[in-house]
Design a protein that fits this description.
CATH superfamily: Alkaline Phosphatase, subunit A
CATH class: Alpha Beta
Helix content: 25-40%
Largest sheet: 8 strands, mixed
Number of domains: 1
Length: 503
């Protein structure tokens, strides 16, 4: 039987900001991603919907804002009853496999996938649950992640991604032997997530003295927004001893790891070519969020600045889509409807309720109609004392939440987000429009209560489970030789460097 539905390969990076990639005007050396972009559709204004790993991924997989499914932070359970893109695609007749991290928390480690080829990298229990009531400002990501950067011989991240790559390649060969059955394969890598350590061969692809410093340095205290100030203290970046050389070294390591990820992408493309699968395979490349990488004095994530909230998005299928760029705002919420559309599955017939995204197939086919809905994002994790919200239309972006004054940026005239226009009468109409969208989307008081209760519940359960025998929510693949990849529940910076063999 001749297969009519396209195969679907979703390649996911962790913490990859589009601003460094050449198809977005950046300096990274990525020949394989560039090849995909040259022959695919590049979305220039794609966003995550929560600038933190687990909530972003749960939102993307479900096609729903994280707050609607209780995915409030990195320690939140992904409920098993929530349908994911894997569930929908299996309804459409696909074989669904996952190689790599998705940050799943809870007893269900599959969420619609038939198999996991590599175990989770991070804790699967409630150990990373924050507490707003204790006003904890500590972070798993802090200044040491910047200061400790450079060249390594080995790292936990390299161990993980090599396993992801190997198992994903092997799975593609398995799928090639079932050419009458379409597949959905997710290959999810941890690079270029910090630590900003890189192998020498990738470090050497860049001249250190040519690594640029941030375009937008830390503003004076009186000019910083409330959320920026919170994040600076949350990640202990104020008076931390970080120098320009530390920043340059961290950015060098990050770019090197982007090139490392690119080589993984190239290897998967090569496998598709070798197996004859490339022509009928849609390749999607995206990330869960970006990285501030020193812009505005910040590193890592948990902010609504463009460096953190925007993500790369490339959809490659030359058999149907002409190459080019698409400027309409889009988000990771759109991936589920897009993949279902490509698979020929009607969400109107199968989804139990309307989803928050919409298919990008029309945009891939060249539709430039100015009808794209606004993009929404939220933060309900550690580092903030109340929910924070973002709404973006084609020109403006509004940040709001709690007692913090709203912040308004005109992205057309101010892409680096240096001028807050929220108090400017000339932009009052834009502010009112985005405030109305925010109020229609969220009920802050109710959400505050739900988040606080969820934190209390999970922290109590975790405390109880540490007293005596604990349930094991880990998932081991049939080949359990990669079990050692998981490093335990301790803080990120306590174990991320364990596997680093410094040069």
């Amino acid at each position: 039987m001749t297969q009519k539905q396209p195969n679907l390969l979703f390649i996911q990076a962790d913490q990859l900001k589009p601003q460094v990639l050449p198809m977005y005007g950046g300096p990274a050396i990525t020949p394989h991603l560039s090849r995909l972009a040259d022959n695919g559709v590049t979305f220039d204004n794609a966003y995550c919907n929560f600038p933190l790993c687990a909530p972003s991924r749960f939102s993307m997989l479900s096609g729903m804002l994280a707050s609607k499914i209780g995915a409030y932070d990195n320690g939140a359970e992904f409920p098993a009853h929530i349908p994911t893109m894997a569930h929908y695609l299996r309804i459409a007749g696909y074989r669904a496999s996952l190689s790599g991290k998705q940050h799943f928390v809870g007893p269900d480690m599959l969420h619609g996938f038939e198999e996991r080829l590599v175990p989770e990298l991070y804790p699967t229990d409630f150990s990373w649950t924050p507490s707003w009531e204790e006003l904890r400002m500590d972070s798993n990501n802090n200044a040491s992640g910047v200061i400790r950067s450079g060249v390594c011989k080995r790292s936990v991240q390299i161990d993980h991604d090599e396993a992801v790559f190997y198992r994903a390649k092997a799975k593609l060969h398995d799928f090639a032997r079932m050419d009458d059955v379409p597949f959905f394969l997710v290959a999810s890598f941890t690079h270029p997530h910090e630590p900003y350590y890189a192998l020498q061969q990738y470090w050497d692809r860049y001249r250190h003295d040519e690594i640029s410093l941030p375009d937008t340095p830390l503003q004076p205290e009186e000019a910083r927004g409330v959320h920026t100030t919170r994040m600076l203290h949350h990640a202990v970046l104020i008076d931390s001893g970080i120098t320009d050389e530390h920043v340059r070294t961290a950015r060098h390591g990050y770019l090197a790891n982007v090139s490392y990820f690119d080589d993984m992408v190239g290897g998967l493309i090569g496998t598709l070519e070798d197996t004859g699968l490339l022509e009928n395979t849609v390749i999607v490349v995206a990330a869960d969020h970006g990285d501030m990488l020193g812009e505005h004095g910040l590193f890592y994530k948990k902010h609504f600045f463009e460096d953190c909230i925007r993500v790369p998005l490339i959809i490659h299928w030359p058999a149907r889509f002409a190459p080019g760029h698409q400027s309409r705002p889009s988000s990771l919420l759109d991936l589920l409807p897009t993949l279902c559309d490509l698979a020929g599955l009607s969400l109107e017939d199968h989804a139990p309720h309307p989803l928050d995204g919409q298919s990008l197939v029309g945009a891939c086919e060249g539709d430039t109609a100015d009808t794209a809905p606004p993009v929404y994002a939220e933060i309900t994790s550690e580092g903030v004392p109340e929910p924070m919200f973002m709404v973006r239309n084609r020109q403006y972006k509004l940040l709001s939440g709690g007692d913090a004054p709203p912040v308004l940026f005109d992205l057309d005239s101010d892409p680096h987000e240096r001028a807050d226009l929220a108090s400017d009468p000339a932009h009052a109409d834009a502010r009112r429009e985005l405030e109305a969208l925010t109020q229609a989307q969220w009920d802050p008081d109710t959400l505050q209560t739900l988040v606080t209760i969820s934190q209390r519940q999970r922290r109590l359960v975790h405390a109880a489970q540490r007293n005596g025998k604990s349930p094991n929510w880990e998932h081991q693949p049939e080949d359990a030789t990669t079990a050692w990849l998981h490093r335990g529940p301790e803080g990120y910076n306590e174990w991320a460097w364990k596997g680093i063999d410094e040069v």
